[in-house]
Structures are given as C-alpha cells and as structure tokens.
Design brief:
There is one protein chain. The protein is mainly α. The chain has one domain. The chain is built from six helices and no strands.
Length: 201
C-alpha cells in the first residue's frame, strides 16, 4: 500500500469514528426528548444530525478513492449501496426532527397563551378568637378555641396537575416511533457495512 493509500485509509477510518458515533447517539436520543417536549435539546440534536450527517459523506468519498475504480467486487458494491440507503434514511430522520421541533414550539406557545395572567388571591386567615383573661374567669362558661378552621385556611390547596396537551400526545405517537425505527435501521446498516469492510478489507 502506497503512502497516498495509507493517508486515504486514515481519513476514511477517522471520518467513520468521529461521524458515525455521534450521529447514531443523536438520532437514538431524539425520541426521548421529543416525548419530554424539550425544544432546546431537540433543536441541538437536529443540528448534530445535520452536521454529522454531512461528515459521513467523507467516509463515502474516501472509500471511493480507496477502491481505485474496482467496483466489480460484490462486497464493495453492497457497502456503497447500503451507505446510500442509510444516508437517505438520515435525511428522513432530520426532516422528522424538524417537524417535531416545530410542533413542540407551537405547543409551548399555545400553553403559554392559555395560562392565566392573574395570580390567585392570597388566603386570608381569620382573626384569632378572643378569650377571657386568665385572672378573671367567667363563671359558668367554657372557653373553646377552634383552631381547625384556621389551620385549614392556612394550608394551601394542592395545585391540579396539568393534563398533557394533544400536540404532545401526537408527538409521542408519530415522530418518536418513526425516528426510533429509522435510527435503529441506520445503526444496523452501519454494523453490516463495518462487517463487510473488515471481513473483505
């Protein structure tokens, strides 16, 4: 192997290490944060998928240069075909990430508009009951201090839990399932390509 081929092989393996790992992690983590409706994390994962998806083209380019036009080998043709399929699936994942992010932002905007602008009035406690002085008891009467109502008034009522918005339920059912399925297929394709390259390389 010449020095030029060694350089191409180093670049080929380097792009595979630094591109495939992060993009696989980003695509597989996306459904979890879509279910949580975390717009900032989904936006970051979408950007990571786009950047590392473009870097995977370096793997394909340097692989073509290493082949030296010998495309008659079955394993090489199969590897290139699988890579093209995986890249198309990555484009679908990136599209679904953008759609999910848009729906999350719309859901957050609707929830913020529907929130009440006024704060609840403070709970007023009744004045303490007046009792007779200790040194002058009143004959024939009993002093009763009812602290139950005051304790109930001072205890704040528990806040009702918010029901999930319909948009969040739709995200959990549509985008999360599709992204999880496609990212699993893409990860399997990377493994098959790796096995073909190591077995026949």
């Amino acid at each position: 192997m010449s020095s030029g081929d060694r350089l191409l092989l180093i670049l080929h393996v380097g792009f595979a290490i630094f591109a495939l790992g992060p993009i696989t992690a980003a695509t597989m983590a996306t459904p979890r944060y879509i279910r949580r409706a975390d717009a900032s994390v989904v936006r970051y994962l979408n950007r990571a998928t786009r950047i590392y998806g473009l870097l995977t083209l370096g793997i394909f380019l340097f692989g073509l240069l290493l082949a030296h036009g010998k495309f008659n080998q079955v394993w090489l043709t199969a590897s290139m075909t699988l890579f093209i399929v995986a890249f198309v699936l990555l484009l679908l994942i990136e599209r679904d990430q953008r759609k999910a992010l848009h729906k999350i932002e719309l859901s957050d905007a609707e929830r913020g508009a529907a929130a009440p602008a006024e704060t609840p009035p403070p709970v007023q406690t009744p004045p303490p009951a007046q009792t007779a002085p200790a040194d002058k008891p009143v004959a024939g009467t009993e002093t009763k201090v009812d602290t139950g109502d005051a304790a109930k008034a001072e205890t704040p009522a528990p806040e009702p839990k918010k029901a999930p918005a319909p948009a969040d339920e739709e995200l959990a059912k549509v985008e999360t399932g599709r992204i999880a399925m496609i990212s699993g297929v893409v990860a399997l394709i990377w493994i098959v390509i790796l096995v073909l390259m190591v077995w026949n390389g």
